Amino acid sequence: MTTPRRIDHLIHLVRDLDAAGAAYEHLGFQVGDENRHPFGTRNRIVQFPGVFIELLAVGDHAPIPEHGPKSFSFAAFHRDRLARAGEGGSALVLASRDAKADATAYARAGIGEFDPFFFERHGRRPDGSEVHVAFELAFAEDAASPDTAFFACEHKHPENFWSAAAERHPNGATGVLGPVLTAENPSDHAAFLSTFTGVRDFRATSLGLSIPLAGGAIDVLTPDAFARRAGVSAPGGGGLRLSAIRIAAPESRVVSAQDLFGLTLLLEAAAPG
User: Fold this and answer.
1) What's the number of domains the chain is made of?
2) Residue 125: pLDDT above 90?
3) Nearest to 117, CA basis, from 99, 97, 131
4) Where is the signal peptide (predicted)?
């Protein structure tokens, strides 16, 4: 992992999937239909070129597997996270070309000794046609950040997942610029994030960290710096928290966590010239 990755997706954990989808649609985003995972979670997807926001809820349609000695349970984590910390940004996910290799690399680096996790499901394109998609995940863990999951995601059938039609949004939004994480002491998490992303050269200031990735960046700010930048308060809790998502849009706007199920959206217009 010597070259920077791109973000594959960011997870917004909610209690009411339909209400969250309606809120995003009200903001002018196209939101996909509900999908069901075989391990008890449900999602709806807001897709952009090469990256997506996953609206995720815990369902009752399938049993949730518990964590094992070398097994990170995606569904159990989100069930417990929702009960403990409530709604909001819950996971930072990098793109992977080889999840098995990533899982091995994470174990060697000491940031997560978990077996890779494969699953598949059916999905639907915006035209209603059904497609088969499959994924393999490699999990990492920042022990100081119990409320945020970190993993790399390999798409087994990317041609069935990504859709140019799904990436067109009525509000004109064109892409995800990156996540904004918050932490009381961002430098405490620098080593983990460097190992997780493969980025060795990043910017550190008194306000936090900025880690460049292909097509964007991960910003890690103190709660005070986040409040000054976003104009809203950061969520509480220990360690790294996914507090906001930066989105390229025609007009700048802040949608606060109070209005959007615990997660802030920073819509950012490109500067003139």
Assistant:
1) 2
2) no
3) 99
4) none
